[in-house]
Amino acid sequence: MPNNPDHSALRLRLAELATLNGGSVTGAAIRALGITARQVDGLVANGVLHRTRRDHFLVGHTAPSLAGSRYSKVAQAGDGALLASIAAIDHWGFLPWDTDVTHIVVPKQRRPVEGAFVRVRPHLTKAAASECAGMPILAPEYAVFDACDHLDGSSIRRIIREGRFKKRLSIERLQQIAATSLRGVTRFRTALRLWDGGDNGHASAYELRVDRALGHDVLEGSLANPMVQVGGERLFPDRVWFDLRIAVECDGPPHDEPDQQRVDRVRRAALRVAGWDVHVVHWRDFERDPTSAVASAQYAVRRARSARTTRNSDP
Predict the structure, then answer these.
(1) How far is CA 151 from the centre of its chain?
(2) Minimal CA–CA distance to 116: which of 152, 69, 153?
(3) How many Cα neighbours within 13 Å face the side chain of 151?
(4) Which of 222, 261, 259 is nearest to 240 (CA)?
(5) Can you name the residues that pair with 132 across neighbouring β-strands?
(6) Taking the complete model, does pTM exceed 0.90, yes or no?
(7) Ramachandran assignment for 218, one of left (phi > 0), alpha (psi -120 to 50 degrees), beta (any other)
(8) Which of 150, 224, 287, 315 has its CA 20 to 30 A from that of 256?
(9) What does 268-291 look like in DSSP terms, one character per residue?
(10) Where are the alpha helices (DSSP H) in 184-282?
(11) pLDDT per residue as tens digits for the range 10-59
């Protein structure tokens, strides 16, 4: 690159562009900065740029970041290409997904891209397209919907909860997509229905293990981490049967901390005073014998259901 007053400014703009795109830049983006083809050859010779493909470069290093790899693949897919599915969910920060398998949607002719699944979506609207940290990407709600084929209902609810917390997801928009889509993804609609009903999904892997030990028959009719109003307090027990007024708490290692134990005692005392039957499954008991650890909760649920059936059958 010639030695001129714009030399440092161009390098700085190139570095900023690379930072935005995870270290990867396209030839078109470089030319937009005013850098000529001859100057590009000089930067390649000096090791500032590393050519990965004909019109794609890494800046300053030869090992692309995950974001840089994804950006390069989206750029290769052509005009209108968008990062999609689980890769988009990860890029939005809703659910970690560190694999380099990249899902891309394009509005027209598909180009094969190594290491990526490219799908043609001819009816992509402007509302479906967005940008996140320089990445052309499906808008958050469309990305969630697009990822449903690869996720279970619990993961979808976790994504919705995280997206709502980060104020990047609109439940109303999600509902609109679910109502108008011709694809009719059952898991997506089920996750939304459970969200509307108060089910917020598992907050930890330990809660999921406890649920599996409880069994499908016991879990029927219950919700994970819903809000329970007790007086003026909003509490979120790990598993709740509202009709039976039974709550199960899953105490993992963080609940061994003295401060957390004090909070737990106050919270559970408030629930019991309000008429709730509260059962605690401690992680040490569960590790020793999962069946015994959940036996009390299983018995309470089955007994309450049996009592309710008896009352309903009495003349």
Answers:
(1) 10
(2) 69
(3) 29
(4) 222
(5) 135
(6) no
(7) alpha
(8) 224
(9) HHHHHHTT-EEEEEEHHHHHH-HH
(10) 186-196, 205-214, 216-219, 258-273
(11) 666 666 666 655 566 776 777 777 777 777 777 777 666 766 666 667 67
